[in-house]
Design goal:
This protein is α/β, with parallel strands linked by helices. It is built from 15 helices and 17 strands. The chain has two domains: 260 residues, Aldolase class I (TIM Barrel, Alpha-Beta Barrel), CATH 3.20.20.70; 70 residues, Arc Repressor Mutant, subunit A. The model has no long low-confidence stretch (mean pLDDT 95). The structure holds iron/sulfur cluster. The site of iron/sulfur cluster has 10 residues, from loops.
Amino acid sequence: MSHEMMDWQIPTAVYLHIPFCRQKCLYCDFLSFAGCDSATMADYLAALEHEIQAAGSLPTAQVPLQTIYFGGGTPSLLPPEDLRRLLQALALSFQLTPDAEISLEANPGTLHPDDLKTLRQAGFTRISIGLQASQDHLLRRIGRIHNASDFSKTVRAARAAGFRSISADMMFGLPGQTLDDVADTTDFLLDHQVDHLSYYGLILEDGTPLAAAAARGELSDLPDDETERTQYHLIRRRLADAGLEPYEISSSARSGHRCRHHLVYWQGRSYYGFGLSAHSYLYGQRRANTERMTDYLAAFHHPAEQSSTGQNPFAASSLLETVDREEAMNEMMLLGLRLTDGVSFNDFAGRFGTPLTVRYGKVIDALVDRGLLVRDDRGVRLTCLGLDLANLVFEQFV
Ligand code: SF4
């Protein structure tokens, strides 16, 4: 490993993509397939293991991992034994710190209580459950496969299985969703004593059934922008009142429960990405794996007896960009300003050897004048107005 590599350039985080879902939600444009047969899933699992083994030859593989995140798709659709196998593959090719954060995204109703016990024993420490809304009629409208009571059962079972960190996702800006619905969903989650919450506004992504319905004029009850902003602030305020502090634009957490894996992204640090369409940021390069299942399987296909150690770890990926110093500075601002703590003068100067105010002095002055940023002794961060106009702020750093 190069001695010149700085702390933030040494990857200690792994993202694994599991691209299977029972049924596609009507708003979703993530890469995931509904109704896959078990043969495809088994082939995928084998390829994923081979990709992980191949990555064991990378120069940083000896540095213990601090976070692992199984995302998707619906990772909880894989049998727990398969998830355990993937964790074992990671533990063989890499090392794990004793307090590694190992997260699994799950859909309510996809995990049996015994599965949760197996997963906890396998080493998973954190579970992130997609509720979206506590009103079953809203869940049906967006094509979710579960109801609110499935969520309750999954949370209870996760706690009984020994999970000490439970996260949930909720959405606002849904068609037909009122401010009361948003308040009730937030309270529902607080009643379940979740430790971490992510909240996302609905985006009508091209090519999704919901976007098509909107284009046909069938979503007349979509909340307008102002209502959506009110919903957003209501969620953040209610959570803060209950002890879940906002720490990022879309995330609030109890003390000690911030998602360490996602912080890696927001702090512009390096990470490995394995699986179909997974992205990685390694050695100053952003790469993306192919989005074609057949290509991915072909890239990491091996007869069972043949080891993939020594194989090209980038066999399924292509280079997106080489991040030079200038680009890394911009990214640190863009991503770091998502955090409630913002970007600190010390961190910026420590990383780049240039004071933040020297590199971005004028831009920051202008944003402070417009009331979008605050600057104090520590660094810079978004104001309340800046939160609402975050994209406008971010544009200044690209
Ligand atoms: S469960 Fe998640 S990944 Fe799967 S279709 Fe729904 S939103 Fe998309």
